[in-house]
Amino acid sequence: MLTVDYDRLDLRPGMTVLDLGCGEGRHAFEAYRRGGRVVAVDWGVPEVETTKRWLGAIAEAGEAPDGARYEVVRGDLRALPVPDASVDRVIASEVLEHIPDDAAALAEIARVLKPGGRVAVTVPRYFPERVCWALSDAYHANEGGHIRIYRADELRTRLAAAGLVPGGQHHAHALHAPFWWLKCAVGVDRDSAAVRAYHRLLVWDLVQRPWLTRTAERLLDPVLGKSLVVYADKPAVPGRPAARSWSLDGRHRERSAV
């Protein structure tokens, strides 16, 4: 289930892509399949291991084109182990709402992006998220939980304060908003027939991608989309050459194996 639109991100084969707060790797997988040189970063040890395992499976299955590469590391988004101006694209999906010092994380994104590079930031949308918070403290008030709710204009302002230029935006996952409202209403840690039934619907939609639900979500996203996605660019510096590719072990590489 992808939140980022890769066409808007303008991800092209051979680009270095940093997936921050990669979780279990859903955006890293797609970037790798599209020929990116992917560096997936997360603080959670299980998330790092899961992402590494699945990227390895994609490589073994031959689902990534020649030239695609990946690395998975455990790292702090407020102090990335990445050189200045060294990556073409950054994805930060559903992670900023967990970070107390989100300004430091945004400053790091701006630092590591090459001039002319682009970032896609996704966060829970204000209205659906506010409903979840009103229905359940357990939804957000836990270790590692959501600590803030962003309005679109606030997120754009924070991106600009980091030296980035906010561009287009959209919403995603309208069908997921009612699921989380239902889950919060009955209790996020409780099992219920209604929640199980809705979850089966979402899994069916994810696997089968039927015309009916895909059309319904596309129409409902502007109103109920649970995620807000904002794209922003780092201003280009005229006359300055682009930085070279890099790897986390410090070796420049153009054809190195995973």
Could you explain the architecture of this structure?
With 258 residues, the protein is of the alpha/beta class. It has a domain of 180 residues: Rossmann fold (3-Layer(aba) Sandwich). Strand 1, helix 2 and strand 2 form a beta-alpha-beta unit. Helix 2 packs parallel to helix 3 and helix 7 packs antiparallel against helix 8.
**Helix-strand topology string:** HEHEHEEHEHHEHHHE
| DSSP, total strands | 7
Looking at CATH, the homologous superfamily of the domain at 1-124 and 147-171 and 228-258 is Vaccinia Virus protein VP39
Termini separation comes to: 25 Å
Strand content: 15-25%
Question: Outline, from the CA principal axes?
Answer: globular
* Name of the top-level CATH class of the domain at 1-124 and 147-171 and 228-258: Alpha Beta
Low-pLDDT regions: 248-258
Q: What is the radius of gyration?
A: 19 Å
Mean residue pLDDT: 92
Named at the architecture level, the CATH assignment of the domain at 1-124 and 147-171 and 228-258 is: 3-Layer(aba) Sandwich
Main β-sheet, spatial strand arrangement: 3-2-1-4-5-7-6
Assembly state of the chains shown: single chain
Count of DSSP-assigned helices: 9
Classification by helices and strands:
alpha/beta
Main pleated-sheet profile: 7 strands, mixed
CATH topology of the domain at 1-124 and 147-171 and 228-258: Rossmann fold
Helix content: 25-40%
